Amino acid sequence: GVSAARRVLLVEDSALAAALLALLLDVAGYAVDVVGTVADAIARGAGVDAPYDALLLDLTLPDGDGLAVARALADAGTLPAATLALTGHDDAAT
């Protein structure tokens, strides 16, 4: 049988950035779920659909810090091994 598509949780509050990233991932053969807030990301990433194969995580979200998502999913045991941070920050600490 055909194997299931690898699943990506995309956490991005910019509609344009989310649409472009989701399109690129879809074309590459990934199944993408898009959310735009910390609360939605935690609910989806630790919920019944978890765990995902990969997490693309914007660090600046309207309701908080994207790193809170990574911490919550790690605590829930559902943080994907492939987790990439997306940020406009240019300082090394972040």
Strand order of the main beta sheet, please? Answer: 2-1-3-6
Mean pLDDT: 91
Radius of gyration: 13 Å
Shape descriptor reads: globular
Overall helicity = 25-40%
Number of strands: 6
Structural class: alpha/beta
Distance between termini? 43 Å
- Unreliable residue runs: none
Largest beta-sheet characterization: 4 strands, parallel
The helix-strand sequence is EHEHEEEHE
What percentage of amino acids are in beta strands?
25-35%
Number of helices: 3
List keywords for this structure.
94 residues; alpha/beta; four-stranded parallel sheet; two-stranded antiparallel ribbon; 3 helices; 34% helix; globular
Summarize the structure.
This protein is of the alpha/beta class and 94 residues long. The chain contains three helices and six strands.
Structural topology:
Layout: E1 7-11, H1 15-27, E2 31-35, H2 38-45, E3 54-58, E4 60-61, E5 64-65, H3 66-76, E6 82-86
Parallel strand pairs: 1-2, 1-3, 3-6
Antiparallel strand pairs: 4-5
Helix pairs in contact: 2-3
